[in-house]
Amino acid sequence: MPFSPEPTHRHGAAPGGPLATDVAVLLCNLGTPDAPTAPALRRYLAQFLADPRVVEIPRLAWALILHGIILRVRPAKSAAKYATVWTAEGSPLKVWTEKQAKLLQGQLGERGLCVRVAHAMRYGQPSIGQTLDALKREGVRRVLVLPAYPQYSGATTASVIDDVSRWALKTRHLPELRFVNRYHDDPTYIAALAKTVREHWQRDGRAEKLVMSFHGMPERTLHLGDPYHCECLKTGRLLAEALSLRDGEWLVTFQSRFGKAKWLQPYTEPSLVKLAQGGVKSVDVICPGFSADCLETLEEINQEAREAFLHAGGQRFGYIPCLNDHPAGMRALAQLAERHLQGWPTDPAHGDTLAAQRARALAAGARE
Ligand SMILES: C=CC1=C(C)c2cc3[nH]c(cc4nc(cc5[nH]c(cc1n2)c(C)c5CCC(=O)O)C(CCC(=O)O)=C4C)c(C)c3C=C
Ligand SMILES: [Fe+2]
Ligand SMILES: [Fe+2]
């Protein structure tokens, strides 16, 4: 049978027919509101910020602050920001994540791997539990969970694993499960980032400094043993090495501070302002911790931080987009998945497993 990387043929959820593979990759991202409106933001933030992995303060006190203050004020403010980056197809994070799942399916197919790729969101839709249920119904018996976070943190990666575990607690016949915890130092990921920087330099010229801005975390999580900070610094160092940058030509900063506590430093926007005030005229900014452009990169960096840098005397602010659907970034994800799929039956010749045969028999029975 000719091999097709298309998810609609034997290797995907063919309408009316079962899968020829019982192996799936589940690409998980954070999730995003359904609409750039205050009610949609309230639903999204209520779920996101109630996660004890995200806000680690005693539950009762936090519930009072969250419902008494934050969910009354923040939804409208955040909705206005989302409105500035919203596209015809929806939130950028959703659009990129869907596209990445499709491309990953194709890339794995081209590598001769017969797997089903699906995507899910930790907060909002499609949820991780509902997607795992759907995969099971299609005959999937093995799932590689791939959180789209290069650097591990309790707030992101572990929270995805929590959610899969919550689904597992109420599921009788569990699939085999594997998890990718991190890929912050993966050479193909670093090379992909370096490629996007070089492409930017070729197109727009090279700035005096390369600022690598990562999403922040409360500083206390570092002292409690969260590896996130160290992994961001390692990604930064490896990217600088890949670009042959010298000390002083690059820096790592942390953005998106939330709440009053001290977060990881240096903070992105104040650093950019300090650079401009110190006479730096041009910067390039990349956000290597985000696998896809989203509110935090498009609005906070490419709008707010840009304005702050220019206002403080900077003259040129180059924004380098996230890996999104860049072929080099997709190759990195495909290679990562391939490595973690080792030993599972992904060969098309072996794709017609007992599970798939059983699913087909069931489907045939159901049609009669
Ligand atoms: C990439 C890694 C991320 C880490 C680490 C992270 C930690 C973290 N985030 C918040 C609070 C908010 N984050 C918000 C948006 C947001 N965060 C990430 C990624 C990480 N967060 C992404 C990709 C996005 C964008 C989502 C989108 O829809 O585009 C928001 C919502 C927006 C807003 O109201 O400002 C909040 C809130 C905390 C508290 C935290 C660590 C403890
Ligand atoms: Fe966040
Ligand atoms: Fe933000």
UniProtKB/TrEMBL annotation:
Compartments where found: Cytoplasm
Pfam families named in the record: Ferrochelatase
EC top class named in words: lyase
Statement: the UniProt record of this protein carries the keyword Chloroplast: no
Keyword annotations from UniProtKB, A to Z: Cytoplasm, Heme biosynthesis, Iron, Lyase, Metal-binding, Porphyrin biosynthesis
Pathway(s) per entry: Porphyrin-containing compound metabolism; protoheme biosynthesis; protoheme from protoporphyrin-IX: step 1/1
HAMAP family (alphabetical): Ferrochelatase
NCBIfam families: hemH
Function: Catalyzes the ferrous insertion into protoporphyrin IX.
Name this protein carries in UniProt: Ferrochelatase
